[in-house]
Protein backbone atom coordinates (compact mmCIF):
# COMPACT_ATOMS: atom_id res chain seq x y z
CA UNK A 1 0.00 0.00 0.00
CA UNK A 2 1.32 3.48 -0.86
CA UNK A 3 1.25 6.00 1.96
CA UNK A 4 -0.31 9.38 1.19
CA UNK A 5 0.81 12.30 3.33
CA UNK A 6 -1.27 15.06 1.69
CA UNK A 7 -3.41 16.69 4.36
CA UNK A 8 -7.07 17.22 3.41
CA UNK A 9 -7.98 20.79 2.44
CA UNK A 10 -10.05 22.58 5.07
CA UNK A 11 -13.37 24.00 3.92
CA UNK A 12 -12.19 27.60 4.46
CA UNK A 13 -9.12 26.89 2.30
CA UNK A 14 -11.07 25.94 -0.83
CA UNK A 15 -10.43 28.68 -3.42
CA UNK A 16 -13.29 31.11 -3.95
CA UNK A 17 -14.17 33.02 -7.08
CA UNK A 18 -16.67 35.58 -8.28
CA UNK A 19 -18.87 34.37 -11.10
CA UNK A 20 -21.37 36.26 -13.21
CA UNK A 21 -24.62 34.49 -14.03
CA UNK A 22 -26.45 35.94 -17.02
CA UNK A 23 -29.95 34.52 -16.70
CA UNK A 24 -32.71 34.67 -19.29
CA UNK A 25 -35.88 35.62 -17.47
CA UNK A 26 -39.62 36.00 -18.12
CA UNK A 27 -42.37 36.92 -15.71
CA UNK A 28 -45.89 36.23 -17.04
CA UNK A 29 -47.21 38.96 -14.74
CA UNK A 30 -44.51 41.49 -15.59
CA UNK A 31 -42.70 43.77 -13.15
CA UNK A 32 -41.71 47.42 -12.80
CA UNK A 33 -39.24 47.24 -15.70
CA UNK A 34 -40.67 44.61 -18.01
CA UNK A 35 -44.06 43.93 -19.56
CA UNK A 36 -45.93 40.66 -18.87
CA UNK A 37 -44.37 37.82 -20.86
CA UNK A 38 -41.35 39.88 -21.99
CA UNK A 39 -38.03 38.03 -22.31
CA UNK A 40 -34.96 39.76 -20.88
CA UNK A 41 -31.48 39.00 -19.53
CA UNK A 42 -30.39 39.82 -15.99
CA UNK A 43 -26.92 39.51 -14.47
CA UNK A 44 -26.01 38.50 -10.93
CA UNK A 45 -22.60 38.39 -9.25
CA UNK A 46 -22.08 35.42 -6.93
CA UNK A 47 -19.21 34.54 -4.59
CA UNK A 48 -18.69 30.81 -4.85
CA UNK A 49 -16.20 28.02 -4.25
CA UNK A 50 -14.49 26.40 -7.20
CA UNK A 51 -16.14 23.14 -6.19
CA UNK A 52 -19.68 24.58 -6.25
CA UNK A 53 -22.22 23.54 -8.83
CA UNK A 54 -24.33 25.87 -10.91
CA UNK A 55 -27.31 24.87 -8.76
CA UNK A 56 -25.48 26.20 -5.67
CA UNK A 57 -24.93 29.53 -7.44
CA UNK A 58 -28.61 29.73 -8.44
CA UNK A 59 -29.55 29.08 -4.81
CA UNK A 60 -27.34 31.99 -3.72
CA UNK A 61 -29.11 34.28 -6.19
CA UNK A 62 -32.56 33.19 -5.06
CA UNK A 63 -31.87 33.14 -1.33
CA UNK A 64 -29.62 36.20 -1.06
CA UNK A 65 -30.37 38.53 -4.00
CA UNK A 66 -33.69 37.94 -5.78
CA UNK A 67 -36.32 35.63 -4.32
CA UNK A 68 -38.46 35.96 -7.45
CA UNK A 69 -36.03 33.89 -9.57
CA UNK A 70 -37.88 30.70 -10.56
CA UNK A 71 -36.30 27.35 -11.38
CA UNK A 72 -37.03 23.68 -10.64
CA UNK A 73 -34.84 21.46 -8.47
CA UNK A 74 -35.48 18.52 -6.17
CA UNK A 75 -32.93 15.78 -5.35
CA UNK A 76 -29.91 17.91 -6.40
CA UNK A 77 -27.92 14.75 -7.15
CA UNK A 78 -28.65 14.03 -10.81
CA UNK A 79 -31.40 11.50 -10.14
CA UNK A 80 -34.72 13.35 -10.48
CA UNK A 81 -33.78 15.34 -13.60
CA UNK A 82 -35.86 18.35 -12.58
CA UNK A 83 -33.14 21.00 -13.00
CA UNK A 84 -32.35 20.52 -16.70
CA UNK A 85 -31.59 23.88 -18.29
CA UNK A 86 -29.56 25.39 -21.12
CA UNK A 87 -26.13 26.38 -19.76
CA UNK A 88 -23.69 28.14 -22.09
CA UNK A 89 -25.83 26.98 -25.04
CA UNK A 90 -25.80 23.32 -23.99
CA UNK A 91 -28.44 21.30 -22.15
CA UNK A 92 -27.18 20.12 -18.76
CA UNK A 93 -28.37 19.43 -15.21
CA UNK A 94 -27.56 22.39 -12.92
CA UNK A 95 -26.82 19.97 -10.07
CA UNK A 96 -24.22 18.07 -12.13
CA UNK A 97 -22.42 21.09 -13.58
CA UNK A 98 -19.41 22.49 -11.71
CA UNK A 99 -18.73 26.22 -12.02
CA UNK A 100 -15.04 25.62 -12.65
CA UNK A 101 -15.95 23.69 -15.79
CA UNK A 102 -17.90 26.62 -17.26
CA UNK A 103 -15.05 29.10 -17.77
CA UNK A 104 -16.10 31.29 -14.81
CA UNK A 105 -13.92 34.14 -16.12
CA UNK A 106 -16.77 34.90 -18.53
CA UNK A 107 -20.50 35.37 -17.79
CA UNK A 108 -22.27 32.02 -17.57
CA UNK A 109 -25.40 32.00 -19.75
CA UNK A 110 -28.39 30.24 -18.19
CA UNK A 111 -31.62 29.75 -20.16
CA UNK A 112 -34.70 27.51 -20.00
CA UNK A 113 -34.55 24.36 -22.15
CA UNK A 114 -35.79 25.09 -25.68
CA UNK A 115 -38.89 23.96 -27.53
CA UNK A 116 -41.31 23.95 -24.57
CA UNK A 117 -43.48 26.89 -23.42
CA UNK A 118 -41.79 28.96 -20.70
CA UNK A 119 -43.94 29.44 -17.61
CA UNK A 120 -41.55 31.69 -15.68
CA UNK A 121 -37.77 32.27 -15.85
CA UNK A 122 -36.15 28.80 -16.11
CA UNK A 123 -39.38 26.83 -15.62
CA UNK A 124 -41.04 25.33 -18.71
CA UNK A 125 -44.37 23.56 -19.22
CA UNK A 126 -43.41 19.86 -19.38
CA UNK A 127 -46.88 18.64 -20.39
CA UNK A 128 -46.15 18.35 -24.17
CA UNK A 129 -43.08 16.28 -23.29
CA UNK A 130 -45.01 13.94 -20.98
CA UNK A 131 -47.87 13.68 -23.51
CA UNK A 132 -45.45 12.23 -26.09
CA UNK A 133 -44.14 9.77 -23.48
CA UNK A 134 -47.66 8.59 -22.65
CA UNK A 135 -48.38 7.90 -26.32
CA UNK A 136 -45.77 5.15 -26.54
CA UNK A 137 -47.47 3.24 -23.68
CA UNK A 138 -44.54 3.13 -21.21
CA UNK A 139 -45.55 0.06 -19.24
CA UNK A 140 -45.03 -3.70 -19.47
CA UNK A 141 -47.69 -5.35 -21.68
CA UNK A 142 -48.26 -9.07 -21.12
CA UNK A 143 -51.00 -11.65 -21.59
CA UNK A 144 -52.00 -14.77 -19.69
CA UNK A 145 -52.24 -15.29 -15.95
CA UNK A 146 -50.08 -13.29 -13.60
CA UNK A 147 -47.10 -15.43 -12.54
CA UNK A 148 -46.54 -16.21 -8.87
CA UNK A 149 -42.91 -15.02 -9.13
CA UNK A 150 -41.12 -12.38 -11.19
CA UNK A 151 -40.74 -12.83 -14.96
CA UNK A 152 -37.17 -14.00 -15.54
CA UNK A 153 -34.79 -13.15 -18.38
CA UNK A 154 -31.16 -13.88 -19.16
CA UNK A 155 -28.35 -11.30 -18.79
CA UNK A 156 -28.13 -11.17 -22.59
CA UNK A 157 -31.84 -10.37 -22.87
CA UNK A 158 -31.47 -7.63 -20.25
CA UNK A 159 -28.44 -6.18 -22.02
CA UNK A 160 -30.52 -5.35 -25.11
CA UNK A 161 -32.36 -2.53 -23.32
CA UNK A 162 -30.11 -1.86 -20.30
CA UNK A 163 -28.88 1.50 -21.60
CA UNK A 164 -32.33 3.04 -22.08
CA UNK A 165 -33.45 2.08 -18.56
CA UNK A 166 -31.11 4.83 -17.28
CA UNK A 167 -33.41 7.61 -18.53
CA UNK A 168 -34.49 10.07 -15.81
CA UNK A 169 -36.90 11.98 -18.08
CA UNK A 170 -35.15 15.32 -17.65
CA UNK A 171 -36.02 16.28 -21.27
CA UNK A 172 -32.43 17.34 -22.00
CA UNK A 173 -32.31 15.12 -25.11
CA UNK A 174 -35.69 16.09 -26.56
CA UNK A 175 -35.17 19.82 -26.04
CA UNK A 176 -31.71 19.64 -27.67
CA UNK A 177 -33.26 18.30 -30.90
CA UNK A 178 -33.65 20.87 -33.71
CA UNK A 179 -36.50 18.85 -35.23
CA UNK A 180 -38.40 19.06 -31.93
CA UNK A 181 -37.88 22.83 -31.84
CA UNK A 182 -39.51 23.33 -35.23
CA UNK A 183 -42.01 20.47 -35.51
CA UNK A 184 -44.80 20.56 -32.97
CA UNK A 185 -45.85 16.98 -33.77
CA UNK A 186 -42.54 15.09 -33.38
CA UNK A 187 -42.45 12.74 -30.38
CA UNK A 188 -38.82 13.61 -29.69
CA UNK A 189 -35.85 11.42 -28.66
CA UNK A 190 -36.99 10.68 -25.11
CA UNK A 191 -40.30 9.15 -26.17
CA UNK A 192 -38.46 6.94 -28.66
CA UNK A 193 -35.93 5.64 -26.14
CA UNK A 194 -38.80 5.24 -23.67
CA UNK A 195 -40.39 2.92 -26.23
CA UNK A 196 -37.02 1.24 -26.92
CA UNK A 197 -36.83 0.22 -23.27
CA UNK A 198 -39.98 -1.94 -23.75
CA UNK A 199 -39.68 -2.91 -27.45
CA UNK A 200 -36.46 -4.85 -26.74
CA UNK A 201 -37.62 -6.26 -23.37
CA UNK A 202 -38.09 -10.02 -23.81
CA UNK A 203 -40.92 -10.01 -21.26
CA UNK A 204 -43.05 -7.49 -23.15
CA UNK A 205 -45.71 -8.40 -25.74
CA UNK A 206 -46.65 -4.92 -26.96
CA UNK A 207 -43.55 -4.17 -29.03
CA UNK A 208 -45.32 -4.15 -32.41
CA UNK A 209 -48.04 -1.83 -31.09
CA UNK A 210 -45.31 0.62 -30.06
CA UNK A 211 -43.45 0.24 -33.34
CA UNK A 212 -46.63 1.03 -35.24
CA UNK A 213 -46.97 4.24 -33.19
CA UNK A 214 -43.35 5.21 -33.90
CA UNK A 215 -43.82 4.45 -37.62
CA UNK A 216 -46.30 7.34 -37.73
CA UNK A 217 -45.48 10.66 -39.39
CA UNK A 218 -44.72 12.12 -35.94
CA UNK A 219 -42.45 9.22 -35.08
CA UNK A 220 -38.97 7.87 -35.53
CA UNK A 221 -38.48 8.82 -39.21
CA UNK A 222 -38.30 12.50 -38.31
CA UNK A 223 -34.96 11.91 -36.57
CA UNK A 224 -32.15 13.50 -38.62
CA UNK A 225 -29.32 11.86 -36.65
CA UNK A 226 -27.72 15.10 -35.49
CA UNK A 227 -26.49 13.47 -32.25
CA UNK A 228 -27.56 16.53 -30.20
CA UNK A 229 -29.63 14.19 -28.04
CA UNK A 230 -26.72 11.87 -27.26
CA UNK A 231 -24.45 14.81 -26.37
CA UNK A 232 -27.10 16.33 -24.09
CA UNK A 233 -28.01 13.20 -22.09
CA UNK A 234 -26.66 13.61 -18.52
CA UNK A 235 -26.86 9.83 -18.02
CA UNK A 236 -24.65 9.01 -20.99
CA UNK A 237 -27.35 7.09 -22.85
CA UNK A 238 -26.51 6.41 -26.50
CA UNK A 239 -29.78 7.97 -27.62
CA UNK A 240 -29.02 8.11 -31.34
CA UNK A 241 -27.96 4.44 -31.32
CA UNK A 242 -31.21 3.45 -29.61
CA UNK A 243 -33.22 5.38 -32.19
CA UNK A 244 -31.33 3.62 -35.01
CA UNK A 245 -32.18 0.24 -33.44
CA UNK A 246 -35.86 1.15 -33.52
CA UNK A 247 -35.55 2.20 -37.18
CA UNK A 248 -33.83 -1.11 -37.98
CA UNK A 249 -36.63 -3.09 -36.31
CA UNK A 250 -39.16 -1.25 -38.47
CA UNK A 251 -37.13 -1.79 -41.65
CA UNK A 252 -36.41 -5.49 -41.09
CA UNK A 253 -39.49 -6.56 -39.18
CA UNK A 254 -37.18 -8.21 -36.65
CA UNK A 255 -36.60 -7.36 -32.99
Automatic annotation (TrEMBL):
Gene3D superfamilies: 3.10.20.30, Alpha-helical ferredoxin
Cofactor section: [4Fe-4S] cluster; [3Fe-4S] cluster; [2Fe-2S] cluster
GO molecular function terms listed in the Swiss-Prot or TrEMBL record: 2 iron, 2 sulfur cluster binding; 3 iron, 4 sulfur cluster binding; 4 iron, 4 sulfur cluster binding; electron transfer activity; metal ion binding; succinate dehydrogenase (quinone) activity
Involved pathway(s): Carbohydrate metabolism; tricarboxylic acid cycle
An annotated GO BP: tricarboxylic acid cycle
Residues covered by the 4Fe-4S ferredoxin-type domain: 157-179
EC number, UniProt record: 1.3.5.1
Keywords, sorted A to Z: 2Fe-2S, 3Fe-4S, 4Fe-4S, Iron, Iron-sulfur, Metal-binding, Oxidoreductase, Tricarboxylic acid cycle
Transmembrane segments: none
Annotated Pfam families: Fer2_3, Fer4_10
The keyword Iron-sulfur belongs to this UniProt entry's keyword annotation: yes
NCBIfam families referenced in this protein's UniProt entry, alphabetically: dhsB, PRK05950.1
Family membership: Belongs to the succinate dehydrogenase/fumarate reductase iron-sulfur protein family.
Protein name (record): succinate dehydrogenase
Upper taxonomic lineage: Bacteria, Bacillati, Actinomycetota, Actinomycetes, Micrococcales
Amino acid sequence: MTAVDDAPIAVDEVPTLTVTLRIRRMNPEGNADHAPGEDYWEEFQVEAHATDRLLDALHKVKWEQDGTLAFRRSCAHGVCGSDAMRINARNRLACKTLLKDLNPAKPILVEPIAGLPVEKDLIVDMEPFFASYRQIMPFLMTSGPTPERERLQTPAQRERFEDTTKCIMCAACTTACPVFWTDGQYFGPQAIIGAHRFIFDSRDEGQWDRLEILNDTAGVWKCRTTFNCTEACPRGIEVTKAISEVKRALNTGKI
